[in-house]
Amino acid sequence: MSIENIKKDFETELANCHTLSSLEELRIKYRGQKGIITLLSRTIKDQPKEERGAFGKNVNILKNNADNLLNNKKEELKVIELESKVESEWIDPTIDIKLEKGHLHPLSEIQNKIEDIFTSMGFVVLDGPETETEENNFEALNIPKDHPARDMQDTFWTTDGNLLRTHTSAIQVRGMKNLKPPFKVIGPGRVFRYEALDASHENTFYQVEGMVVDKNISVANLIASMKTLLKEVFEKDVKVRLRPGYFPFVEPGFELDISCLICNGEGCSVCKQTGWVELLPCGLVHPEVLKHGGIDPNEYSGFAFGLGLNRLVMMKYGINDIRHFQSSDLRFVKQF
After folding, report:
1. What is the mean pLDDT of the chain?
2. Disulfide check for 168: which of 22, 118, 186, 187 has CB 3.0–4.6 Å away?
3. Is the pLDDT at 295 greater than 90, yes or no?
């Protein structure tokens, strides 16, 4: 095909382009890597020596002319499409549109309140990654491989051998490695467990882990701190009970239960008809955990606790199903 014929065909097709997408198709056809004009320019070296100069000059003129026409057409079509959008998507700025103000999710509100309560008691708020190492999530907490306690926390594993943290205790592990005692820390955050869902169990939920390390720490210090927390959160005295519990990272370990505020202790689906809700697993920090964090257990002791934020919010607001938090149902969120 001659240069003149290519020029005529290009200009005819260009005149029939009425959208930016069709223009882009035309550009690729003629000026793409395998476009007609691009391939034509590669034949310059194959022309007879005496004709090569004139042929190359004409090809360059064709190429520059096509580029200029494509650019001009593109700007023209941009203006046309913009005018079409302005006409079809016109908005009257004088219309009085009432925008609803957003607000914090109840989990965020309670987390902020708990952080304020603990910082007023001298605690430091720490953070950590949601994807953790097996070392920080298990082994540093006295849960070695093949330990039966791992069955208590069904785990989401990643392909690189890491995991989605099953508790925010991993934040405490990082804190022990970076802080020197005495210290008081809390670590709020999202955690993940491969669990069957029901009214009181979710596979994604929120916790606040806390740890105090100092000299001569006892169970009395633990109970006093937890009572202060619950009284501030619920703004009243609540009925609690402390019973023995097993957790590899504390010794002795306890379960601090709260009288179910959904049914006033009479029994419901949230408390599984017992009248009590597990709220605060806690205990004195196991000496092996202190050792792993580089702390001498002969000189220091401590207490630790894990607070379920979702269950705390459920008790405070009378929410009867933990699955509402992850439902994205605005009817639920707008109540708060």
Report:
1. 87
2. 187
3. yes
